Amino acid sequence: MSADQTPAWGGAAPCWGSPATETPWSLKDVMSEELAQQLDKEEQEQHMQDLNARKGDIIDIDKLVDMAPGETCSDYMLAQMLQHEFDREHDAFLDKEEQHWNGSSKVKISFKNYRSVHPKIQEDEVEDEEEIWEDDYKDDPVPLFNKSGISGKGKNIITKHDPQITERRNVRRMEQFPPEFDTGDSRRMNVHLPNHVYNRLKRHSVEETKRSQRLHEKKEYSTTDMALDAKTRLILYKLVNGGTLESVEGVISSGKESVVFHGTGGSMNNALVPDECAIKVFKTTLSTFKNRCDYIRGDVRFMKDEFKKQNPRIIIKIWAEKELANLKKMENCGIPCPKAVVLKKNVLVMEFIGQDQKPAPKLRNASLSAAELECAYEQCINNMRQMYEKCNLVHADLSAYNMLWHNDILYFIDVAQGVDTMHPHAKEFLLRDCSNVSEFFKSAGVHDVKNKYALFNDITGLNLVGEGKEFLSQIEEYKKSEEMLRMDKGKAYPFDYFFEKEMKEREDKHKKQQHLFDESSSEDEASDPDTMLRKEALNPETEEKICLSLKLGTTETAEEPDCQQDCDDE
Ligand code: ADP
Ligand code: MN
Q1: Contact 330, 427 (CB under 8 A)
Q2: Distances (CA, A) of 373 to 161, 246, 247, 399, 403
Q3: 397 tagged catalytic
């Protein structure tokens, strides 16, 4: 990417040439008000530390004020507080003595050198006070304190540490908490806030702020409409920096599940990458997670251990892997589709279908002549058949939106949800695809469009009859016989089918058992744990099949319901 180009994913043009030495901050972080405040605070703390180092015994007054009695973290701090209090009293006494000695005399003596509290702290405290009391809201008049923090005379003498004043000051300070901290109109309600309550609230406020920052970070993990999260930006950065891509340009499409960019290809492993590439970034948001889970479950190719972890990033990665694997399979079988170039986590680089940065139109939007439509229909059916026969794949989301028309060729795209024909729902998915295809071409005016059932039979080579439920029940029957056939041939077997079957059998048995138990009064037998166990045991045939299925690398029995649970929770 040339230096003056702004990257498609927003923000300033990154310097692709320099290696990534540290995790980049997101723009959101850099612009964050909280971050600015935090840095400011750190700077102030540093400054205060420096000051302490220089002045030796200056006590961190903020810490002392913020800490309620009994809440100090150490005896040392407690001692310091007491000492500070004592020093102040001592200074107040000196002030009084000073006044006493000087009276109205023009020549005055000063006890300054005998003071214990450092003048710097006194100044700070006074400034602090002024800042706090500065407000348009006029509540009870605030007594004026002299430099030693004392107001009034004789019996009416009050210090600025007077509980009432402190409590009111705490209320004001509470109002300085971050805006999201709902304080209400505590002053007008005349709320009094003792130090220990104020300290708790303050702590809570800090925790809340941290928590919201964490949540905000979490949000940063997901890819929002067009903006990409930091990790995805890093992947794109590496692709460009490593030379696979020369540049990443404009957005071709931004949908619910992915953002597709146009990119200019570079080279990879000494091989040329297509001149124009489509870069599909799978969104890591969870909106369609459940949906994805259903497609991955039951596909033996993707039922490895990772799936157990239920981490959305991993699911997205598997999802992207699925698209890559399906594209490769299709390419090998000569089905027109984008050539897959490389996959990095949730970023899939593939050949761009189109020219000069102009993507090929979706079949839905391509204004084709009648002849072209006939041709597209032919190609579509042919592609579907090849996909089923040669690749053992069902697209599972085939529609006029996932087919591109380019140079008189119909390309199938968006194959992430494509399932193996062994998937327990493959046939239903196929019937849905057939329905979409038939309806589209029929409404587009193509002659002799097969209805979905005929198309289904054509693609699968089956001869199912009837329509609707009748057709579906034959699909069910066929699926069962197909599973058995596969078992006989010793092929891999979908885990889900056996799992569900076993569960159903157990449930039926349990019901029967319950029934028997209710009818007979023979308690002994029913409560005998051995009998129960024997009854609960797997039937040997199914057990054998599950073992085989496990050996083939599918998931474990115990994990399966969790997965369903998690998916449903989303
Ligand atoms: P989604 O899951 O978001 O629908 P798709 O794979 O269908 O993702 O891509 C979205 C859109 O991006 C497509 O409709 C198409 O217009 C465009 N697109 C995707 N892949 C390519 C490609 N290889 N070449 C050209 N355009 C593409
Ligand atoms: Mn699509």
Answers
A1: no
A2: 87, 36, 35, 14, 13
A3: yes
* Average pLDDT of every residue of the chain: 73
Alpha carbon nearest to ligand 1 atom 5, residue: 414
Query: ∠ CA(546), CA(550), CA(556), 5° rounding?
Result: 90
Could you list the beta-strand ranges (E) of 99-233. Answer: 150-151, 158-159
Ligand closest to the CA atom of residue 364: 1
pLDDT at 230: 84
Shortest-distance atom of ligand 1 to CA 351 = 23
Among 260, 261, 273, 403, name the best residue to mutate to test ligand 1's pocket (greatest count of ligand atoms within 8 A of Cβ). 260
Q: What pLDDT is recorded for position 550?
A: 32
Give every residue of the chain whose pLDDT is below 70, as ranges.
1-36, 47, 50-78, 119-142, 179-189, 212-227, 285-311, 486-503, 506, 517-570
> CA–CA distance from 436 to each of 364, 398, 455, 474 (Å)?
12, 7, 11, 21
Ligand nearest to the CA of 337: 1
How confident is the model at residue 140, as a pLDDT? 62
pLDDT computed for residue 215 by the predictor: 55
Supply 421's token pair. 């024909």
Amino acid identity, residue 32? Answer: S
Q: Which ligand is nearest to the CA of 263?
A: 1
pLDDT at 218: 47
- Is the sign of the CA dihedral 7, 8, 9, 10 positive or negative? positive
* Residue 223, helix vs strand vs coil: coil
Q: Ligand 1: does its nearest atom lie under 6 Å from the Cβ of 359?
A: yes
Distance (angstroms) between ligand 1 centre and the Cα of 30 equals 32
Bridge-based pairing state of the strands 267-268 and 258-265:
unpaired
**pLDDT computed for residue 524 by the predictor:** 43
pLDDT of 398-452, one tens digit each? 999 999 999 999 999 999 999 999 888 999 999 999 999 999 999 999 999 999 9
Strand bridging mode 340-344 / 276-282: unpaired
Catalytic residue among 95, 397, 458, 566: 397
Beta bridge partners of 262: 278
Instruction: Give the model's pLDDT for residue 99.
Output: 87
> What are the structure tokens assigned to 193, written together?
């806030």
pTM for this predicted structure: 0.52
Burial 331-350 (b: 16+ CB within 10 A, else e): bebebbbbbbbbbbbbbbbb
Please calculate the CA angle 493-494-495 and round it to the nearest 5 degrees. 110
Pocket lining: 252 vs ligand 1, CB cutoff 6 Å: yes
* Distance (Å, whole) CA 24 – CA 244: 21
Contact 446, 371 (CB under 8 A): no
